[in-house]
Amino acid sequence: MNARALCTLILGLLLPLPALAQGFAGLGQTADGYALPERGQALEFPRDHGAHPAFRIEWWYLTANLTGPDGQDYGVQWTLFRNALAPGDPGTGWAAATAWMGNAGLTTPRAHYSAMRLGRGGIGQAGVTTTPFAAWIDDWQMHSRAAAGDDPLSVLDLTASGTDFAYALTLTAEGPLVLHGDAGFSVKSASGQASNYYSQPFYRVTGTLTLPDGPVQVTGQAWLDREWSSQPLASDQDGWDWVSLHLDSGAKLMGYRLRGGGGDYAVGTWIAPDGTATPLAPGVLGMTPTRLSRVAGREIPTVWRLTLPRQGLDITVTALQEAAWMDTLIPYWEGPVRVSGSHAGRGYLEMTGYE
Amino acid sequence: MRRTALSALLSHWRRHPLQLVSLLLGLALATALWSGVQAINAEARASYDRAAQVLGQDRLEQLVPSDGQRFSQDVYVTLRRAGWIVSPVVEGRWFRAGHSVQVYGIDPFTAPQGTLPGAVQAGGGIVDFITPPGQAYAAPQTVADLAGQEGLPPLIAAEGMVPGILFTDIGIAQDLLRAPGRISRLLLAQGQPANRPPLAQIAPGLEPRAPQEQADVAQLTGSFHLNLTAFGFLSFAVGLFIVHSAIGLAFEQRRPMFRTLRALGLPLRTLVGLLAAEVMILALIAGLVGIALGYVIAAALLPDVAATLRGLYGATLSGGLSLRPSWWLGGLAIALAGAGVAAAQSLWRLWRLPLLAPAQPRAWARASARGLLRQGGLAAVLAGVAVLAGVFGQGIVAGFVLLGAMLISAALALPGALAVVLAGAERISRGVLAQWFWADTRQQLPGLSLALMALLLALSANIGVGTMVSSFRMTFTEWLDQRLPSELYVTARTEEEAARLRDWLTPRSDAILPIWKVEGPVLGQPAEIYGVADHRTYADNWPMLRAEPDVWQTLARGEGAIVNEQLWRRERLSLGDPVPLPGGVERPLVGVYSDYGNPRGQVIVGLADLVAQFPDLDRRRFAIRTDPAKVPELRAALVADFGLPQDSMIDQVTVKQISLMVFERTFAVTAALNVLTMGVAGLAMFTSLLTLSTMRLPQLAPVWALGLTRGRLARLELGRAMMLAALTMVLAIPVGLLLAWVLLAVVNVAAFGWRLPMHVFPGDWLWLGALALAAAGLAAAWPAWRLARIQPTELLKVFADER
């Protein structure tokens, strides 16, 4: 996940709020009063599944590649963003200086549905608790059903709804948590901006999608990203392409390319089937758009070539639904993809900053 | 030919500039009064429309509490977490030291798109908005009104906002309104997710309310605006009298010219067309002047109207007056229509005039006995209509039909009545001169009757409205004395402070009477429900219109309710009828009290009864009974010893002052319109006399030839005008009293919901009579002076001219 994209996104979504713009304008430059991620500071669970109010932004970001009884592919996205509006103790009640935003998406080969929710912390409309683990905004929730002693994220119930869609999924982790970068310390630019970043990419999913035509039983895989930071990108970076791929071999790949600045900055994590994570240094992962599609009035790369020579990987990533457009106030592209080439598989692609 | 004819016709105005001025002035004044009132009404209507749009209430469905009471914000969270896309609103009035403002607390995170004013969306930082002290957005005039008030968040002026309201964050508003954790209602976004649990299951206390096209206040103030319209129309009608007489005069004087033009071959059709065009051009000019004047009048009256509407209905108007095309086009249209109506008779007579009819002006000798009889018949018919409207009519429209029919009927009957009086006077008078005087007055009556009718209307409107206002003032003042028996009123800042305050006050005062109320729907309309303590203050002072014996004991036992006159009349309740309170409980009606100045319904039950029904009510207000002399001392002690801020209390004297101020402002507009109407009537009188004076030479010349000096004749003319004004005044008194009665007993009841006892003020009539005489004297002075200074040759010419 790219924070600039997120900022743009939140900025846009919260435009009806009194000039949130000014609150976020300085994000790329400074982290006044906010905590900063530190290299070597070990993550601790379940504590770090919860919110980190000392940091400016944070998210619980889940994408799922699902299959219906007839073999039809579906994609589901569930996101909860936390945005501190001011450094320090956010306070309580209506005055709590925390904005929460939820995004939900559901993609089919024929259509794409999306919805957005906003709320503030402090009154119970949105928030995250660690024991028991629950993250929610309105009726959208992600809550733990893990047995005592297990990692709370190992079994999750997930729900969301929009005016024309809904889903209810159960996620069961079949592998360990994966820490990105240096034990969860993930560097975002050559000049050193960083975040704390870990994932649970090993979910098996069962559940129901509710579509305008009726309910569909689905099964599949899901990937949860957890990330928090206060100053996550360089001021001259302006766009972002991100993939999370489940390869049929059981391996996973997370990679992203930050566009702009002094050149693209592409890094990622190669995750072996047993969960062993190998950080990909800048320059190792090749990410090249190979086809542009006209989506919502702009040119968006919907087919990509990814190369990872050391792993013998040379794949084509193709969008399942080119129109996977998150039609929120500031829209972005996020949808399921198919993987072909040296490896087969599926995953999710997110692209932002295409004006 | 046409051009020549036109220039000939227009040359008349060049030779009679005064006539031109009076025609233009009359029409301009009539248009000005009418369009001024319309401008005020249009401005108010626009304000109400904008108020209805606040928070998208005109297009969004809402969830409102069925008992009208604020409810816990937990209900909001429960609904959100069940999938209902709702946004909370807390609203209420914030009062401090005589200032009040409607506070809307909103949640910018969940407010449906397009519900917040643009300025709120584009304002400062979100953190400053939601964290104490917060920020409040308001119209610039509201910010100016509230400048320096303590206890409000920093105010930000935002152009284009509805005045009289503050937009602030819900958390900040809860503190301002002292309603922590409570909300008033929920806005329901368009496009709700499917599969939500039903409302009855998760929020049983709420019910959906359809979008409301009209603000409550628009309904409340409807009668007030109808009132204004009626007065505007009355002024317009009076103004038309002037126009009619000026146009009539111009036609009569141009008869020789018409004959000459026709004789020269100008077709009748062209002549009438030219004259109609002339009238329309004059009307257009006068209409434009009238609209400009109307704008000035409206701008001058608007602050008072705005103050009235705010004081009486809590409706706030924006201070500025905008020039709406619909308004000035309407003003022009009414000027043209008015001129058309006023000229129609003259044009019609010209159309039927024989080609070689005698060109001699006949001094408007239209007043045959048959004409008077016909007019009398019409007056009788209209009187019948008035009686029917009075007996069978209902509501404010019937009230105005009654009023209009009665006034026009009286005006139409006036010439007949005067003719009878003058004939009687002629019969009993002695001497040639006296007999000539009376007979000549009667002869002039037709020419003056229109002006006298205008005077009658103005005078009776003055008497009627004056009587109503004075009656109201008298009743209201007495009623305030009864209604506000307590010497000091205090409001604690918190419930905890209220409890301490009560303990503190107990040994220091004669009695502490809680003033606790809730607001909620009663019989389908918003109402206030008060709880009354069991204390003899009420039994001793409270003005009851109807009551069962032991009404206060019944209330104390929680076995009854009393309602204000407005609610009682509106719902046609009788003693013993059940009064449903918000939340479903009913109490039998055991009494009715008068409650002037309050547009809403009100119910009073026993205090314990109220608390039992609404345990969450605001318990911070008290009335304190004590020796009036000790009030300053007690106030000082409250501040110094107890620590209550000065602005948390208000004494009886101040409350009365504020109430009376609202009252005075309410009628300031009426009074202003009254004065203007009188002015218009005076002008009508002046034009008519001027008209007559130029045509009367043939009648005066023989009297002069018989030996009466010009000075004597002039004095007689002056005396005649004043005598007619005095007679009109005498006839205006009963008409005015009848008008006052209709206003008090019919129009007020329909408009405000209360009926006032009528008081008469003969002293005022004397003043008015003097004013009428002065107006008539002034109007007659110029024609009389001209008569006194007329060249004898002019009088001789009457005999010399071949006519």
Descriptive report:
The complex is a heterodimer of chains A (355) and B (803). Chain A contains two helices and 23 strands. In chain A, 5% of the residues lie in helices and 53% in strands. Chain A starts with a helix and ends with a strand. Chain A has a single domain (3-19, 45-352), classed as AttH-like domain (AttH-like fold, Beta Barrel). In chain A, the strands form two sheets. In chain A, strands 1, 2, 3, 4, 5, 6, 7, 8, 9, 10, 11, 12 and 13 form a 13-stranded antiparallel β-sheet that branches. With 803 residues, chain B is of the alpha+beta class. In chain B, 62% of the residues lie in helices and 13% in strands. In chain B, the strands form four sheets. Chain B has an eight-stranded mixed β-sheet, covered by helices on one side. In chain B, strands 13, 14, 15, 16, 17, 18 and 19 form a seven-stranded mixed β-sheet that branches. In chain B, a hairpin with a 5-residue loop joins β17 (578-580) and β18. Chain B is elongated and about 100 Å long. The A-B interface holds A 14-20, 22-23, 85-86, 91, 93-95, 97, 99, 115, 118-120, 123-125, 136, 138-139, 161-164, 166, 210 and B 73-74, 76-77, 80-83, 85, 107-111, 113, 116, 120-132, 135, 169-172, 174, 191-195.
